[in-house]
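Example noted here:
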Amino acid sequence: MTKKIIIANWKMNNSFDEAEIWLHNFSKKLPGIKENLEIVLCPSFILLDYLDGLLMDEELQRLQKLHGNIDELSEDELEKKIFNVRQIHLGGQDCHAEKNGAFTGDVSAIMLKDCGCEYVILGHCERRQYLNESDQLIAGKVSAAIDANLTPILCIGESKELRQNNSCLDFIGKQIENNIPVNLEIDNLIIAYEPVWSIGTGLVPTIKEIEEIAKFIKSKISANKNIKNFAILYGGSVKKENSAEILAINNIDGLLVGGASLKADEFFEIVKA
C-alpha cells in the first residue's frame, strides 16, 4: 500500500444527527486534501448504512458538478462510479467469524460489505479485554473478512507490564502468528500497532519505541509470502499535536485514531498532517 491511511474509530459514540453533522463539517474541508490519502470512517454498526447513503449522495452531487450530465449512465454504473471515487471509505468495528447463523447481536463480514464497507477492525484490545476474544477467534474473523473481500485492520499491542519486562516483541510476534491464519492468501492487510497502555491514557511511546515495533512488524509480515500488500499504522492517544511526528516515523503508513476522531475539526487536522 502506497497511500497514507488515516482511520477514525468512533467506538460506541455518535447519534444519527451527530454523525451527519460530523460528516458535513469534515467533508466541506476535503477538497484541499491530497489524493494519495485513504480516509476510513469506522462508526457503530447501526450508522453504517445511513452514512453510506450520505456519502453516495455527496459524491453524486460532486460528480454532477464536475461532469455535468450523467444521465446516460445506468443506475448500477453510476453507483459503481460513485463508490470508486468517493473520498471517505467505510469500515466496521468488528465482524463475526461465521457467514451467518444463530449469533444474536453479531454482524457478519458479508453484512458489512453490503453496507458499503471496505474495511473492518479486528482484535481491538477493548474486545480482547472486555469480551475475552481469543487469538483463535480473531484468526477466524480475519478469514471471514478476507472471504468477504474486506481489508482487515488487525490490532495488536502489548500491556504496560510486557513493555516494562522487555517482552513486547515476543508478545507482538505471537499475536501476528496466531491472528493471521496459516496459508491464507491475503491481498491487503493493515496491522494497527496499539500499545494497550497508551489507548485513552494520553501516554504515547517514544519515537524510537514506535520505530522499533514498526520495523519488527514489517519483518514478520514480510516473511509471510501469502500476504501481497500490507500497511502498518500506529494507534493510541493520537491527537493533532503528535500526528505529524508519528506519521514521519519509518515504516508507519498511517494512524488509527480513537477519541480525537469524534471531533470533525480535530480529525481534519490529523488528516491534514
